[in-house]
Structure formats: structure tokens, C-alpha cells
Fold:
Amino acid sequence: MEKITRDCVGERVDKRGTTEHVGFIESIMPADSPLPTDPRELTHLGSVAVQLMFAGFNSMSDWFYSTIFFLLEELESYGLLIKEIRDAFKNYEDITPGALNSLQYLHACLEESLRLFNSNSTGLPRISPGAVVDGHYIPKGAHVETNIFALARSPRYIHDPLPFRPQHWLPSEHPLYNLKLPFLPFRVGPRHCMGKETAWMQGKLFIAKVLWLFDVIKVPGQNVGLEGTLLHYGFFVKPEVRVRSCKRQLR
Structure:
């Protein structure tokens, strides 16, 4: 895998300045910058590329999948979201990242699907420097992490944690506001997700454009649940969910 990664990164580096759209490589290594000669730099660049690849396809596909799944399970939330999106935009071309920032219910739905179906269930482990946490001393060198999947479903921290409730994430002045939860899916601090802003842009664009253009319906006769039988082997083994997308009639 390391050789494949190195070869693919090398090919992409050689294309700097010639692609139709710039990518992460241009940000990491601009077209006019010299090529790295130290093997360690190439290995580091390959490691970053692998992280971006996995985060860019698996995490986003999980996010799209879970958001559509939960919305079709909670049709009241689905109705509120499509009304917000369709009332906000008269034309498909008007749906842009900047314009989507004002859609509070869209943001709340994406936050809630992250809570219930977060791709990263490893807990992002840390090595303790030797510190007191909540009154307990954690020895130096101890491996520390929290299972995000379990935490987001724990009644110790969240009242009635299993239902999909976007109102948890609305601003306090919103008429549907409910108690805000202490949940940070992209983490915080110097090791927080470096693709956070890109992920939010992609997530909002995808969901808003799909639901503006299509009426999405869950195919009848399915009995699919994400509790109890969901498996995770580094990636979620997602059960198949069949939906029907019908292009809506535009006036």
C-alpha cells in the first residue's frame, strides 16, 4: 500500500499547475515549489494523502447516507428541511456554499446525523502527559480515548439519545430550539480534523442540492435499523437502504 500511495502521489505532484481544478496537492506543494528530495518528506506527503483520501470518501459517504436515512425515518424533520431549502432558493444555481450558511435547520440536521452515525468511532487516542481529569489522575504515558459512538448514545449525557432530533443543534432563538449537546464530531485543539470546513461545505451542498431537486422516498417494505446490528471494521458496514428519487415539478 505504501508503494501504491507513493506512486499515486508522485503522479499527482507531476500534474501540478495543469489540472482543471486545483486540489489539496497545490495547497501543500504549490506548482512553483521545488520537488521534495528527502525520502521522509515523500513519506509524510503520502501519509497526508492517505488521510485525505479516506476522510474524503468514506466519512462523507457515511454522512450523506445517514442524513438521508434519518430524514426518511423522521418525516417531520424531512418536511421542515425541504421547506427551508426550497423557500431559500428559487433556482438550483443559487445554491452556493455562502448562501447555505444561513440555513439553520440544514446545519442542525447534519449535526444530528453526525451525532448518531459518526464515522470515527475510534475516539482519536491520546497519550496522557500525566494530568488530572475530572478528579482522576491519568498517569503519564497512559493511552486515553473515548468511544464516540457510545458517548453520543449515552443517557448519562443526552436525554432520550436514540431518536433523530435536529432541534438539539438549533440556535437558542430558533422556535424549535432544544437543549444544545456537548458533542464535537470534528474534535477540538491542534489535532482537530483538518478537513472540517471542506466537509461542512460538501455536506451542505450535497444535501441541499439533492433535496431541492428531488423528492426522496424510502422504498416500502424495508425493515432497516442502525441500532444493534451495525458493524464497524475501521469502516461501517452499512445496511442497504433503497430510496426512490423523483425529480420535483418546478413551476
